Every structure is written in C-alpha cells, then in structure tokens.
Amino acid sequence: MVGNTRFGWLNQNCRCPICCILPPHMTDEIIKNGNEAQRSMALETLRVSEQFRGRREAVGAVTLMTPTGEKRRTVYDAKTETQLPGTLVRAEGDPATGDTAVDEAYDGAGATYDFFAEIFERNSIDDRGMRLESTVHFDKKYDNAFWNGTQMVYGDGDGELFNRFTASIDVIGHELTHGITQFEAGLIYYGESGAINESMSDVFGIMVKQYSLKQTVEQSDWIVGAELLTPKVKGIGIRSMKAPGTAYDDPVLGKDPQPDHLSKLYKGTGDNGGVHINSGIPNRAFYLAASEIGGYAWEKAGKIWYIALRDRLRARANFKRAAKTTIDIAGELYGQDSTEQKAVRNGWKTVGVNV
Fold first, then answer.
1. Residue 73: CATH number of its domain
2. Is 175 one of the annotated active-site residues of the chain?
3. Omega of the bond prior to 85 within 30 degrees of 0, cis?
C-alpha cells in the first residue's frame, strides 16, 4: 500500500508537482523485493522526492527568463547534496567539462531546445526564451530525475539497478516537456489528464531521441529510458510505447504494469491515479498513428500532438477528449478522411478509445 499512501495527499488540482521519470510503483517494488541496500536507497529516493514535492506545493515556481531567441543552458553540480541549484559548472558556450553527467545534461537540453525550435518554432520551454537549468549529481545514488517547475534535476543512479539519469536523451526530453505542458495545456497531474501529461512527455521525449538520431518510425525502438537499466535488470527500459506492459519483468522491479488498452485501465489511487501506468494507452495510440503515417514521427503525427498540447487541450482533458482533439486537428491539417486522420483515428480505436 506504499503507493496509495504516498501520493494520496497530493492536491489533485496541482498542475505542476515535481514530475519524476521513474514511476512510484517501481520504488514500491524495490522496497518490497530488494536487498537491504536497495531498499535503503529506494527509501532515501522517496524521502527526498517527497521533500521537494512538498516544497514545490508550498512555494510554487519562479521562472527565469532570457532574451527571446537565445539558447541559454546552465548546468550545476549538487556534489551529492540536495541543495539546488548547486555549483555552476557549465554555461552556454562553455567547452565540455569531461564530467559525463554534466556534458550529457548540457547536450540533452540543447538537443531538446533545438528540436522544438527547428520543428515547431518554439522558443524554449515557455516559448519566451526560458533558461534551461539542470542540476546533476543530486544526492547520493539518487534513483530518479525530475522537473520541479523551474529546472531539471538528475540523480546518478545506484549502479545496481539504475545508471545515471542523464544517459537517456529521451528522458531529458521527457522531463523538459513537462515544463512545456506546465506553460500550455496545464494538464492536471491526476487520473486520465495526468496520464496524458505523462504521455505527452514520452511522445516528445522519444521524438527528441528520434530527431537526434534521424530515425524514422520504423527505425526507432520506441523505448523510454533504454539506457537507464543496468545489465543486472531483466528489462529493456522503463516503458515501451510500442508494446506497453513489456518493458521489464524483473525480480526486484516487478513486471511492467502498463495497460495497452482502455479495457485494462488502472483505476486505483496509487501513482496519482495511474499517471505513469495508464500513459501506456495514449502512448500506444501515438505509436500506432505515427507508424501508420510512416516517415519521421515529428513531421505529421508530432505536429498534430504539438498543436493539441499547445492550443487545444485543457487542464481536465481525458482520453476521449485527447482522441477527438487529435483526430480533429489531423482533419484540419491534412483533410477530412485523409490518410493522416484515418491513422490517428485508428490509433485511438485500437487502444479502445472511440469517438
């Protein structure tokens, strides 16, 4: 019952709590199944995450702006402490430091900025030139990464189950997209709207990865966090957009609980009403739509989803609303009953969301 009690007190109207890449059910499984050291690290991760979640609820966010049109990245080193932001170690234009986590955070933030700028003409997270701030080496063996409303924070991982959290560019893109959702649709982080929030981050996170590798939909692995799991874990990543529920099946982490169809929707109160768990449903809808359209995901399917996030979806949107919105946008962009609109409709229908 750890998952239910841990998140039950959250304000369901909160549009931007801290948004972590690792779902709480993973932490629950480690606490239940791990050895003493693994349980200790999971409990420490839980404690620190709750501390920052409470702080975020209490004081909100203060955004730092830079002049329109300028890319401004700053990376800080927490030096295994928990005070943010830490010591400045790399600013925009500085050469590589040789610290892998620092340089990955810098490069990943740049890749995310470039993707949104070049594909969607977006000027940073808030579309007004917000500085992209990151902190690495957060806490000791911290097993997570999160967006706290103003910046990115990355743990180094415990080395037993998880690698450093800067290793996956899609994770960086995922977390920074939470910032975009914060400034645009403001999807409430609970239930179906929260699952759409998480799915949007997976959708754009995987496209950041695809864009950086110049991968078509056929070439992509559609795995979120493929670099996060150590060789000791029986899994290929933390989520599969292509086949939700198949990313891992491990004695310590448990089995991936994501549903691939609305009929399997998680209806409990843990994980903020299943925001990470149920994101598998809209994730697969996007994968199916993009695959049916073909080519590069960002060219058509990504454009449809971006317009939905930026202009159409509102805070309490559910799966049916997301489906109708993306189907409508596809028709407006490419024509009624076009190949693109049929692909989007088919994607949602296949996962059980009919409109």
1. 3.10.170.10
2. yes
3. yes
Predicted confidence at residue 53, as pLDDT, reads 55
Query: Shortest CA distance to 177 belongs to which of 318, 339, 306?
Result: 306
Look at the chain and report how many structural domains it folds into: 2
Q: What is the mean pLDDT of residues 316-331?
A: 98
Q: Which of 129, 152, 183 is the C-terminal boundary of a domain? A: 183
Does pLDDT of 178 surpass 60? yes
Q: Cβ contacts of residue 201 below 8 Å, gap of 6+?
A: 19, 173, 174, 175, 177, 178, 181
Catalytic pick among 192, 276, 292, 340: 276
Last residue of a domain, which of 151, 183, 215?
A: 183
Residue 204 within a domain: yes
> Do 105 and 133 contact (CB within 8 A), yes or no?
no
Closest CA to 169 of 99, 225, 88: 225
Check 133, 175, 184, 198 and give the catalytic one.
175
Q: Cα separation of 49 and 41, whole Å? A: 12
Same structural domain, 40 and 139: yes
